[in-house]
Amino acid sequence: MTASSRVVTVTVPGTCGELIQGWSDEWAEPVLVSCPVTLSSRITVEVRPDQPGVTVAEADHCSKIRQAAGLALDYLERPTWGVTITRTSQLIPGRGMASSTADVVGVIMGLAEAVDRPISVAELVRLACRIEPSDSTMLTGLALLAYRGSGQTVQGLATGEIDVAFLSATTIKPLAEAGMARVLGTTGSGRSVTLPDVPPIGDTGVPQFEATTTYGLFVPRATPEAEILRLHEAALQSLAEPLLREKLATEDFEVIGGGPAALDAHVRSETAKWAEIIRVRNITVSN
After folding, report:
1. Confidence label for 134 from pLDDT (cuts 50, 70 and 90)
2. Residue whose C-alpha is closest to residue 10's, from 88, 77, 76
3. Which residues does residue 7 pair with via DSSP β-bridges, in sequence order?
4. What are the pLDDT digits (tens) for 158-181?
5. Which position has the higher pLDDT, 33 or 40?
């Protein structure tokens, strides 16, 4: 069977941003109330079954649109298909009107319709949130949004709903001190400044266990070497500030300040380590 090209246009409203914003005692985390507005983003998609690649007519807004198109085509089991996307929007970027979310949602909805594959709101939300923390453009009327993260996990541990969790040392320390959680180990190779009496997991029967988060500065590949060195020197000066180092220490961060070569080596090492774990354990991501 030979599939033919098809053009679909979708209109997605922007939102008012944070109509109401505050704290939920029930969920123990920040929440906000949002709703659609009459201004919108108009997305037209033309699928090309025999011409792979994503073409976006408006270059200034193509990054997230391209991501959404690639993600949607994979999810809709059309990874080799191509698409041309045209965007016409009344939404002003960077003004809290959910312009990028409207674009992402429009692309996903348009592609789903173009390949005749109905998509639920739940699927749409999951896909959009893989691109960015999304607004309520895919929902109708007033929407209560909770950006659930460590707050809900902490609450689950405290109530017994969750048995085991990986949390930052500064997040779990109050629960441990209150007797509401037991800290089994830390994920670094050494002891935590925040929890000095807790041994690393690697010392408690799981040899070579180490899972840490590293923060670094990255620039486009074509950036001149002189600019990279200038940025590195500026970063070192900032990291040398006593107040900043003190603040980072209270959050259990270790300041390294290595150069570009050290960061590159670390990224390559971590990539190889986790790629091997994924391969050996046959870990997959489910949509």
Report:
1. low
2. 88
3. 46
4. 667 678 888 888 878 877 887 878
5. 40
Q: Closest Cα to residue 50, out of 115, 5, 107?
A: 5
At residue 219, the pLDDT reads: 92
CB atoms within 10 A of CB 256: 12
- Calculate mean pLDDT across residues 82-91: 92
CA–CA separation, 186 and 194 (whole Å): 10
**Residue 2: is its pLDDT beyond 70?**
no
- Asked if residue 202 lies in contact with residue 209, where contact means CB atoms within 8 angstroms, the answer is yes
Phi, psi of 176 (to 5 degrees): -65, -45
List domains and CATH numbers for the chain: 6-146 (3.30.230.10), 150-204 (no CATH), 213-287 (no CATH)
Rounded-to-integer distance, Cα 234 and Cα 220, Å: 18
Judged against a pLDDT cut of 80, whether residue 46 lies above it is answered with yes
Sheet (strand 53-56) strand order: 6-15, 36-48, 82-89, 53-56
Give the bridge partners for 10, in sequence order.
43
